[in-house]
Amino acid sequence: LGGALAETSCIMMANYRFRDNIGTVSASIGTVCGLGCMAGPPLGGLLYDYGDGTGLGAFFFPFFVFSAVPFLITAALPCTIPEENAEEEQDTSA
Q: Residue 48 burial by CB count (10 A; 0-12/13-18/19+): exposed, middle or buried?
């Protein structure tokens, strides 16, 4: 359920931001989400095996890692997404 909500919100925001390339953006998001669904179980299994030596426990460690990664990625988002007003200012000055 959470993955579906995240994918839907990403598609809506990206389609609003990149109106000229809706098909390409939607296909890219679908590809990345599909790759994440394929890579998640093997990575979770590896983290489960590694989790015994961490002190957090084998069961808890994959959940801890996969919940911390989105927070780290979210911190980098303001640096990677261009502001919408900057493009509008360039268009009006030309």
A: middle
Over residues 15-29, the pLDDT tens digits come to: 888 888 888 888 888
CB 62 within 8 A of CB 48: yes
Enter the pTM of the model: 0.61
Token look-up 């994959």 returns 62
Give the pLDDT confidence of 30-83 residue by residue, as tens digits. 898 889 889 989 998 898 888 887 777 788 888 888 888 888 888 887 787 767
Cα separation, 61 vs 21, in Å, equals 39
Cα gap 94→87, rounded to integer Å: 11
DSSP-derived secondary structure for 14-83: HHHH-GGGHHHHHHHHHHHHHHHHHHHHHHHHHHHHHGGGTSS-TTHHHHHHHHHHHHHHHHHHHHHSPP
